[in-house]
Fold this protein.
Amino acid sequence: MYTLHYAPDNASLILRLVMLDAGLPFTTQLVDRATRQQDSSAYRALNPTGLIPTLVTPAGPISETAACLLWLSEAHPAAGFAPAPGHRDRISFLRWLFFLSNTAHADLRQIFYPDQYVGREGLNSHLAKLTSRMIRHFTLLDQAAQTHPSLFTAPCVLAYYTATLMRWPMLYPKDAQRWFKITDFPALHAMAKTLDNRPATLAAAAAEGLGPTPFTHPHHARPPEGSAV
């Protein structure tokens, strides 16, 4: 049994999706962002960075999205989360998993929280550079999905990770000009349409208030508990 420390429509959504898809038993523990619960001593004892998610496993707590996904893939090899070590697609899987985590996710976070990275005088230039970078990232991911379709098909974790990163720029920051258009990336768009209809997506969307098409036509989260921001 796992415990997922989560906030609605945060990176914890990716873990919820893959565990639901595989039918893994888990419970959830809300991290209330509205009260900055991620800064509490209790949460920091589990995850010293204060970031979300944290997954409590029988072996102890683990954080960082890619680390959690890789750990789950190794703990549950039959779930199909990732190609097994030695499989011909393993190298490509690892490349794109860490590209999603270290490059795409990290750059997207700078768009959402620019004040943590640049002063007000550099804000416009910073956002222009980062949005241009993200378009290049999604272009590379679209090409990868065409070249390695099995890696971007659930239950492989790359599918849910990529789709969640695509969801967010269509919504956040709430008052920002939209720069991401999902139909510009045909392979990723087709992937997202398929994921919208998976039972795991429907269950996660109900749990976090994400609506009926969270990846192709998303709306802001209306969760039954907690806050997305």
